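User: quick one, fold this
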Amino acid sequence: MPSIFAYQSSEVDWCEINFLHSELVAEFYNTFSNVTFFIFGPLMMFLMHPYTQKRSPYIHSVWILFMVTGLFSMYFHMTLSFLGQLLDEIAILWLLASGYSIWMPRCYFPALLGENRFQFACLVIITTVISTFLSFLQPTINAYALNSIAIHILYLMIREYKKTSNEELRHIIHVSVVLWAVALASWIGDQFLCSFWQRINFFYLHSIWHVLISITFPYIVVAMALLDASYEMPGQTLKVHYWPRDTWPVGLPYVEVRSDGKNC
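Assistant:
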């Protein structure tokens, strides 16, 4: 049995041809496409800092985990090691768990918890710890389980999309769903149609997935922040802005906190 640190000790192998550009990097494009996590993570932490100060300092942990996810994904695709696979998937699991704990609207909490966010966060953390240990037993199904969690988030966003009249929120949700769908199509295409892509010498779908999902995540965070504001930030509204400029057709979304101007 090969060491968990050994190159290609993982059962997962993506469509890109291994060691084509370097003897040290198994999947060159899948490795370095993760650089977007290190660009968008610090940038979003900076842009969302005023909101984080008013909402919760734990939001910084989301962006730290976002960058850790990019780091572990880079390590996994560089080595295709079993350890790299586990670290990659566990980082994603904890990233999603942190988002659940902070932004899940109280109306979706389990009935037995009422609307107690602390108890909900404890439940999420306990579940995540258990899932982390279980991931060592069936590591090959982790990616599908993680995408199932993403589908649940998508379901909640679609429900809120149908309920809200907030045009900013509707736009953010619409863009998030489209980006996520295109990203997921890239992931599925690389996983299940590899022979076709190899015949036409196009091995980049999984690296495209990395770039798209790193762009999608900030949109989802902003959407969840807008949903969350009515529960957690009474008397204040959130205004969506885009970096580098609001007037540009494409940008990275973030929120500005504004007072409603109402007296207590």
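User: anything notable?
Assistant: The longest helix spans residues 205-232.
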